[in-house]
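Most newcomers find our protein records easier to grasp once they have seen one. Sequence and backbone structure share a record, each on its own labelled line. Nothing more is needed to start thinking about how sequence determines fold. As an example, a complete record with its sequence and its structure tokens follows.
=====
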Amino acid sequence: MVKEVTVNELAQMKETGEDFQLIDVREPHEREIASIDGELIPLATIAEAKDKISKEKKVIMYCRSGGRSAKAVHFLQSQFGFDNLYNLKGGILAYADEIDPSLTKY
């Protein structure tokens, strides 16, 4: 099962300065269109980049709408035993709708 956080929970975590890792699993050209920060680790490279992902603190993964990041979370949990990963529900599109309307939707 993939755990999720909402965009409102993420915005609150950013506001309060909570210590967490944010990972963008989209492609570089998508990041140029819109970004909510975080480290870019495209889904296709997630297995090779697993050592860049913290096992000590909460890690939130996002993509455009939540599908690819949910796959990334599920893959890392099942293959490498991560238990601190969360998918951003609705992805950057939900973030644009609910938190930051200035983000370009695509």
